[in-house]
Every structure is written in C-alpha cells, then in structure tokens.
Amino acid sequence: MTDTAEISALDKKIIRLLQGEFPLVAEPYKMLAEKIGITEEDLLARIASMREEKKIRKVGAVLRHREVGFTANALCVWDVPDAQMDEVAHHMAEHPRVSHCYDRNRSEDWHYNLYTMIHGYSRDECEEIAAILAAETGIADRRMLYTKHEWKKTSMKYFTEDE
Predict the structure, then answer these.
(1) pTM of the entire predicted model
(2) Do 117 and 99 form a contact (C-beta atoms < 8 A)?
C-alpha cells in the first residue's frame, strides 16, 4: 500500500470481499459485486485502479494442498546463474505442481537463489518433479526441504467489518 493514497469506503468493502472466500461459481466477480451493491464492471474497474495505484498488489489463491490430496510438499531451492533467472523461473512456474516460484538473494553461506514449492502425493513424486525440472532447465544444483509441520494457512486481513 502507498503512504499517500487514501482508501475509500468502497475500496475497503472491495478489499474485505477479496480477502474472504472466493465464490466458486461461473461469474464470481458478479456475485461479489452484488454483495456490495455495485456492478461487476465497476468492481473490476476498482480492482484494476487499486492495482495501478499500488493499493493492492495481487489477488491470489491459497492452496490447501492436503485438502486436495497432496500429502507431500517440498521447498526446492536451486542455484540458478543470474543471467538465466528469468527464463528458468518462468519455466518452473509453469509446472502444474509448482505453486510458488520466487528468487532470493544469495548469502555467503547459502548459494541458492530460486525457490519453488513442489506438491506431490509422495516424497518420491516431489523428487521426480524436481528431477524433471532440472533436466528441462539444465539446473542440477538443488536441495529439497520438506515440510514437517504446517503452521499457518490463512491470509492477512487488512480491514474488518468494524473499519
């Protein structure tokens, strides 16, 4: 969010809608718009404006991987040459079992700079997916960090009904 931009009452209503459960219907934005008494076109226009104004950064889904059957997941960290980062990251992000893909700065004692979250039905399957990605991109240096315990699966709530 920007320091100088004011957030209108309508924008707060829209943000409340977007940070809640997303309706799984044919026209979800129409349904959301109806909840606050505006048209779907007005809702989409306000979302686009808030993104341009940097009031919101993205609208995304939270994958509850266990609820959809994935019993294993691993943060796979990769050592990608800086000149290849965009190409490799775009390729890995396209894989259907990769839910997150982002770059990080290297440190003196940690040379990995690309992180992918891989979901599978077993650790072996996660390893197979990583091996496929390695073969497709030519990036061999990686480590698999498996989830031991899931602590949080909720998003930040920026506005409540009281605000």
Answers:
(1) 0.64
(2) yes
Type of residue found at 86: D
Please count the residues of the chain: 163
Instruction: Please report where in the chains the tokens 């306000």 appear, as a residue.
Output: 46
Within 10 Å of residue 125's Cβ, how many Cβ atoms? 17
| pLDDT tens string 45-93 | 999 999 999 888 877 766 666 777 677 889 999 999 999 999 999 999 9
| Closest listed residue to residue 31, CA positions, set 15, 48, 45, 43 | 43
**CA–CA separation, 88 and 86 (whole Å):** 6
- b (16+ CB within 10 A) / e for 16-35: bbbbeebeeeeeebeebbee
Residue bearing tokens 């004011």: 6
* CATH fit for domain 65-146, picks 3.30.930.10, 1.10.10.10, 3.30.70.3460, 3.40.190.10: 3.30.70.3460
> Is pLDDT at 10 greater than 50 in this prediction?
yes
Q: φ, ψ for residue 74 (rounded to 5)?
A: -140, 140
